[in-house]
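Suppose a colleague, Dr. K., hands you the sequence of a protein chain of 483 amino acids and asks what its three-dimensional shape might be. Before reaching for any lab equipment, you can write down a predicted structure in token form. Begin with the sequence itself:
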Amino acid sequence: MRLKQLIAEFEAKNAELDALFAKGSEATDEDRTRIKALDGELDGLKTQIEEAKAEEDLKARQEARKSFLNDPVLKGVKMPEAPAEETDETKALAEADEVSSTYKCRVPAVVRKVKVTAFKGTNAVDKAYGFGRFVLAATMGDTKSVRWCEENGLGDALKAQSEGSNTQGGVLVPPQFDSDIIDLREKYGDFRKYSKISIMTSDTKMVPRRTAGLTAYAVGEVEAATESTKTWDQVNLVAKDFAVLSYFSKNLSDDAIIDIGNDLAEEMAYAHAVKEDQCGFLGDGTSTYNGIRGITSKFQWLVESVGGTWTTDTHKLYAAGIVTASDETWGGITLADLNRVKGRLPKYARQVDCAWYCSEQFKDQVIERLLLAAGGITDAMIAQGIEYKLLGFPIRTVQILPTETAVSQIPLIFGSLRLGTLFGDRRQTVIDVSTHFRFSNRQVAMQATERYDINVHSIGNAHASDPTQRVPGPIVALATLNA
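The predicted structure, expressed as tokens, is then:
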């Protein structure tokens, strides 16, 4: 029954993938992301089908053995059994709860006692163990891990490493593991989750952006129509390197292997997600952010680009997307301030995944305070908390944004990141290893790198003298006063 279900699921996903490929140049970014996910899922299903088929064959052989023992000639003959030599490894295998649903070999019982947080599902422990084995095989050439990978459907991935990226000093994480790491990044990070993803097939990519549309004019009875032109410009993406460095002991046991798989996946995902949020929301264009300028810094840059000074309150208003609060502290922010921020956002931006972005502290100290003060709050709402919505739109807490009050800061952003930002994803995770960097400490250094770029391209314009020339974009923000 399990084999039939797996085959049916395999055929359905194959059909879905064929349909996505058939779109050709009309495929969207979401389609390409789904294609990548399906590729990994199909590889995983293929392995599971092979395992299920092997299990069916094993059952059939067992039934044949039973028939053989029922032969009249052998009936009643008892053959002596030689005692099997018991080792620590065979004992661990014998104690294992069940055969892995992911791999052909059993995963040692001691491993199943390790808590896994980076991988999900009923086979989370198996996946963490397999990821650890793959890392050791691909990066360190560990003989036992290489053999384990070859026996458990990861041999092709290892071969690809030896012929491809490994010759450049790093190993590419296989799709069956990379999908989990991507899920973790999206769990931890907010900018990648809500920005528009653009898959980069080279280190640079130019994405067209519509800047003006066609115009309808009134035409007299014998007059010629007035011509209008749809205009475009380009949003530029240039892939940049980001790295996470971790250390592991050279003395590796089976339970240490799963720690490597779990810890490396979680630390890679968390560290990269934090950096992505820092770049997307706060990046100031310096080397700390690989030259990326984020949303809050881009507003400040807009003011300064037309001759203004960010710490001068009247100059903040040069940027069309900035609304100044009633006070320099969070305690002086009013509900009317938040209404003005909402009123500044164009209508088109409210229809595409529009939301508020702030820290948990701002939500608790400002938004909940204002909603409670507005009245109509019941005892149950006070006890259980208020729904995470403000003026009809969801509140998404981002701990990269300010967590305490300060002058001339942007603690609250409102709008659609999908319309105003672009996340260029160049390459999935690559792992590099060094056994020399901390040789005296008997530690192995592992570095996980990614390549991506972020472009905050549409937050409105700025004008120093003429308010009628100021046009807000799909992202607006609240700024506290300087004094």
